[in-house]
Specification:
- By secondary structure, this protein is an alpha+beta fold.
- It has helices spanning about 30-35, 40-50, 80-85, 160-165, 220-230; strands at about 1-5, 10-15, 20, 55-60, 75-80, 95-100, 105, 115, 120-125, 125-130, 150-155, 160, 180, 200-205, 210-215, 240, 265-270, 275-280.
- The strands form 5 sheets. The protein has a 5-stranded mixed sheet with strand order 6-5-16-10-11, with no helix packed on it. A 5-stranded mixed sheet has the order 8-18-17-14-15, with no helix packed on it.
- Strand 1 and strand 2 form a beta hairpin.
- The longest helix is centred in the first third of the chain and has 14 residues, at about 40-50.
Length: about 280
């Protein structure tokens, strides 16, 4: 986890719901250098010693930031749940649909989401995020992908549908507005997730359940995705991959329904915690 004001977050490790272990003396941040140099393994023993010694601090009312520093890239997979493709009226893809999202969209799990100027169709998408743990390219086999993954994180892949579909069909336009990638509250390492292919997912908007899903209905699972992407690009330590959303987005409702200032999104994934974002109007 990372706590503190935007741009001044410091790295910590969650002890439980109320307490954390400060590791800012052991690493400056959870960034490309940290993940790429085996930082997770180095932290493990020292964190355990501090926890056993009771060297913990209360979260209190401190802001929780995204659990990773701004990544080299945010890669996104479209239409990765068959039932979501159906609600969008689009065919199930034969291989992963890839688009990118600006890395500066990354915000904390409880930060406000801002509707961009000119928007009339801002939408929600609860997703499983993969964080890459080592520089990776041309993996030989899907089984090799597990070793390239640092952990998993809860993500809201906020989207603007008019920008996405009606402004030249370039998805990144509808995905890259400021605040459009809340993530966290924490990164869970793979050993904390018994089965990444069986995680329940939910998202509510202003108290109404909109999305209910499970990662077992993914078309392309996380290991397949990491292997697949490695055939086309170099994945850097700390890169974030948003893996797609289950059905229930606003675009799929009849009639369609989109976010308005004052709405509150509450989302969760098993073992990855819960997040809450208030929607605010354009600048």
């Amino acid at each position: 986890m990372r706590i503190g004001a935007p741009g001044a977050e410091r790295p910590v490790v969650r002890a439980d719901d109320d307490y954390y272990i400060d590791v800012s003396d052991l690493t400056t941040d959870y960034d490309e250098r940290f993940f790429g140099s085996g930082g997770l393994a180095r932290l493990a023993e020292q964190v355990e010693e501090r926890f056993e010694a009771g060297d913990v601090l209360p979260f209190g009312d401190q802001r929780i930031g995204a659990p990773i520093a701004r990544p080299h890239q945010i890669l996104c997979i479209g239409l990765n749940y068959a039932d979501h493709a159906a609600e969008a009226g689009l065919p199930v893809p034969s291989e992963p649909i890839l688009f990118t999202k600006s890395p500066n969209t990354l915000i904390g799990p409880y930060d406000d989401v801002r509707i961009p100027r000119g928007s009339d169709r801002t939408d929600w998408e609860v997703e499983l995020g993969i964080v890459i743990g080592s520089r990776t390219s041309y993996l030989d086999d899907v089984a090799d992908a597990a070793g390239a993954i640092a952990g998993y994180v809860l993500v809201n892949d906020v989207s603007e549908r008019t920008f996405q579909y009606d402004r030249g069909g370039q998805w990144s336009k509808g995905k890259s507005a400021e605040t459009f990638n809340p993530a966290g509250p924490w990164l869970a390492t793979p050993d904390e997730i018994p089965d990444v292919n069986d995680l329940d997912m939910t998202l509510d908007v202003s108290g109404v359940r909109r999305q209910t899903g499970n990662t077992k209905t993914m078309i392309f699972n996380p290991y397949f995705l990491v292997h697949h992407l490695s055939q086309f690009m170099v994945l850097e330590p700390g890169d974030l991959i948003n893996t797609g959303t289950p059905p229930g987005v606003g675009q799929g409702l009849k009639p369609e329904k989109y976010l308005q200032p004052g709405d509150v999104m509450e989302l969760s994934i098993t073992r990855l915690g819960t997040a809450r974002q208030r929607v605010v109007g354009p600048r």
